Amino acid sequence: MKSLCVFCGSSPGANGAYAQAARSFGELLAANDITLVFGGGKVGLMGQVANAVLANGGRAVGVIPEALKRKEVAHESLTALHVVKNMHDRKAMMYELSDGFVVLPGGTGTLDEMFEVFTWMQLGMLVKPLGLLNVEGYFDHLAAFLTHTVRERFLKPEHLAMLITERDQHVLLQRLRTAKPPSTEKWIDKP
């Protein structure tokens, strides 16, 4: 695995453990010679993970829409910064540059990115691993909801299993490296 895309908040969040986890994960990426691909921001958890990667001799590649760069939230000290037209182009480029995906705590933008990747994986349009770093149980309620979608027959158990959730960053990284996509179709009930 040469590169991982990290989706995370442009805010540091309410719990200091989130920023600490972002820094620690950045250090882990650098130590494993894995290039960080991310949204290109200098703020919030995005800035924390990028700064940690760079401070530890790693590579950090940002992808940011023109509108956000104009708002001066772009991280200007990256290995590379790609400025794209819009959010759709941003996601497409991040997906192309990455060998896998890790989600740290974040808000609706982070969840949007995660769910798009997850959907594409279910459809077989993206064959790359996806993991949640469940810092301080941040994703516990999301995991419970997704289990509910399986019970209600809107999601197959084997598709839910594609979403690797771990509290330990080392275990998460190892599982991402060995993940294999399922070979089952998305549809539960075909006409």
SSE blueprint and pairings:
Layout: E1 3-7, H1 16-31, E2 35-38, H2 44-55, E3 60-65, H3 66-70, E4 80-84, H4 87-97, E5 101-103, H5 108-122, E6 130-133, H6 140-151, H7 157-160, E7 163-166, H8 169-178
Parallel strand pairs: 1-2, 1-5, 2-3, 3-4, 5-6, 6-7
Helix pairs in contact: 1-2
What does this structure look like?
This protein has 191 residues and is of the alpha/beta class. It has a single domain, classed as 3-Layer(aba) Sandwich (Rossmann fold), CATH 3.40.50.450. It contains eight helices and seven strands, in the order E-H-E-H-E-H-E-H-E-H-E-H-H-E-H. It has helices at residues 16-31, 44-55, 66-70, 87-97, 108-122, 140-151, 157-160, 169-178, and strands at residues 3-7, 35-38, 60-65, 80-84, 101-103, 130-133, 163-166. A seven-stranded parallel sheet has the order 4-3-2-1-5-6-7, sandwiched between helices. Helix 1 runs parallel beside helix 2. The longest helix has 16 residues, at 16-31.
Number of domains: 1
In the sheet with the most strands, the strands line up as 4-3-2-1-5-6-7
The number of helical segments is: 8
Order of helices and strands: EHEHEHEHEHEHHEH
Could you give a short description of this structure?
The protein is of the alpha/beta class and 191 residues long.
Task: Jot down its keywords.
8 helices, globular, 7-stranded parallel β-sheet, 16% strand, 191 residues, alpha/beta, Rossmann fold, 45% helix
